[in-house]
Specification:
Chain A is mainly alpha-helical. Chain A is 54% helix and 6% strand. Chain A is rod-shaped. In chain A, 23% of the residues are buried. The radius of gyration of chain B is 19 Å and the shape is globular. Classes of the chains: A mainly alpha, B alpha+beta. Chains A and C meet through helix 1, helix 4 and strand 1 of A and helix 1, helix 4, strand 3, helix 5 and helix 6 of C. Strand 1 of chain A pairs antiparallel with strand 3 of chain C.
């Protein structure tokens, strides 16, 4: 047994009481004082910082022991005043805090690990912010798109590329119909020197005939092809010369 | 329930991570299978969908993240708005550029290109009148096709959709910028 | 429902803020009344309590914050965990628990309880900002009285001093001597 393992004199005393399996409310003070002094004697050889405090409790124990020997009528009233009373109260109070310390240690242990976010400050993207929308540049659009294309596999890009040109023409057809209600085939050929462009324009036109209410007119062979919205409720066959462009 | 536990784990991970987390990383961090992660994401999306929540599961090109719902934005703008340094959200810009360059295009096609659900972004772009329904695809289910609007042209100061810079111009532009 | 909207707003604010937000700040940022904020916090706590959520509303000394649920912590430790390695010695812990449970308390009273000089321990706890002077006792010499700090609450993950672990029924009976 070494004194360093005790937090103080009360800790040591509690240990001795517990080891002797005695009732804390009825401490055989003679016996426990013996044991305490023995432990202390053994420990004085060790350099201990709080040794005076251990000696102080030893003195208290000896005082209690001597008072136990005195007749109780020493007191002025009839109530029996147990000289051990104050020490017992201290011991129980100390025991209570030892228990509470244990609870706190468990609490500390449960808080041993902190889970920390990888980023402290978060920002909120205000997609609805009008100012942001106003700053947009068409190059942003292109760059975003081409960056995305770069992430795709080559086959998917080719697929898309072909579809884009026809789809692009279709969009243009929509736009021209909305704007003017009527337009010429050459309006949807943006680059006349590109065979691809012309073919796409033509394919788009065929697609439009299928899915949209438009009519195609050509006033003479190899003349201007004029495209215009068909009146509601009439099928392509009812349109006088709508089929010309398909042949 | 097992699914709940997994949703809870995924929510905590998305909360702790600084950036969007892709599916593979979610699997790695959570130790769950791909199917379990997908199931958990679905569970989480549903759990957050109730009106008492101000956060939602967001899918963007880089992966998944948790963010405040856009519906709450007006109430938060004053305090948090200035922190925003990325101009328009990348997700919105990506979706818009796909519609612009590939119109008419269905939502499924957009999702296929971006690799993530496009629901939220489509709603946003529709509500801002930048895209609109332009027809239906001649395919099973006749899915709606989307295209850009006049407001779109106005926003990008284009007179017609034919003025959209071409894909091959992206390289040229980059080259010019490098020289400048 | 109004309460839901308010809970959603509070959730978004707590998500965006890095540190715990106290009630007054929540009122200011959200523009809601004190009662509305408290109601919203209650709503949010409830909304997050379902098992599909891995986050919870946490009330700590400085205010409110959202954090991963404790139950999930072990699964997150490897990647996000930071060990709190500044653990207290038993002597320090004993002194600290005496201050915590008996505050305000003077050094002499602590020394009387522990039966040893408390000088060194008090200095240590003061330097770690776990205890502080809270007043002076109305007794000869007007000795300084000590109490615990907010850092103390944070270290032990307590929202208020009332949340200190309690003795169970059996222990209370054993030590009932000083219930008075």
């Amino acid at each position: 047994m070494r004194l360093e393992q005790f937090e103080g004199p009360l800790d040591l005393l509690l240990f001795l009481i517990r080891r002797s399996e005695i009732n804390i409310y009825d401490i055989p003070i003679h016996e426990i004082t013996e044991q305490y002094l023995q432990a202390l004697e053994y420990a004085t050889r060790v350099d201990l910082e709080n040794i005076t405090e251990f000696h102080s409790l030893a003195a208290t124990l000896l005082l209690i022991k001597s008072r136990m020997l005195l007749p109780s009528r020493y007191d002025d009233d009839d109530e029996f005043d147990d000289p051990r009373q104050e020490l017992v109260e201290r011991l129980i109070e100390y025991q209570k805090f030892r228990r509470l310390t244990l609870l706190m240690s468990e609490q500390e242990k449960s808080a041993e690990w902190v889970i920390e976010p990888r980023r402290k400050q978060r920002s909120f993207e205000f997609v609805e912010d009008d100012e942001l929308w106003q700053q947009l540049d068409v190059w942003d659009l292109l760059q975003t798109f081409s960056a995305m294309m770069a992430r795709l596999s080559p086959e998917r890009i080719i697929d898309l590329y072909e579809e884009v040109s026809i789809n692009e023409k279709l969009s243009l057809i929509h736009e021209l119909l909305d704007d003017r209600g009527e337009f010429l085939f050459e309006d949807i050929v943006v680059r006349p020197d590109s065979v691809m462009d012309v073919v796409c324009a033509f394919l788009a036109l065929l697609e439009a005939v299928k899915s949209l209410r438009i009519g195609i007119f050509q006033n003479r062979l190899f003349g201007d092809i004029r495209i215009r919205r068909r009146p509601e409720g009439r099928s392509p066959s009812e349109e006088p010369d709508s089929a010309e462009a398909r042949t | 329930m097992k699914l709940d536990t997994e949703s809870a784990l995924i929510e905590a991970i998305l909360f702790l991570e600084a950036d969007p987390v892709d599916l593979a990383s979610l699997q790695r961090i959570s130790g769950l299978s791909r199917d379990a992660v997908l199931g958990a994401l679905g569970g989480l999306r549903e759990a957050l969908s109730t009106p008492a929540h101000g956060l939602e599961l967001v899918e963007i090109a880089d992966g998944y993240t948790i963010a405040p719902k856009q519906a709450i934005a007006p109430a938060l703008r004053e305090r948090y708005g200035k922190r925003n340094d990325s101009r328009l959200s990348r997700a919105a810009m990506e979706t818009l550029s796909i519609v612009a360059y590939s119109q008419p295009i269905t939502r499924a096609e957009i999702e296929n290109l971006r690799g993530v659900n496009a629901d939220g972004m489509m709603r946003l772009l529709l509500s801002r009148n930048l895209i609109r329904e332009v027809g239906r695809k001649d395919a099973p289910g006749k899915p709606v096709q989307y295209g850009t609007t006049k407001d779109f042209l106005k926003l990008f100061r284009l007179s017609t959709i034919a003025d959209l810079p071409k894909l091959d111009e992206a390289d040229r532009k980059r080259f010019e910028l490098d020289e400048a």
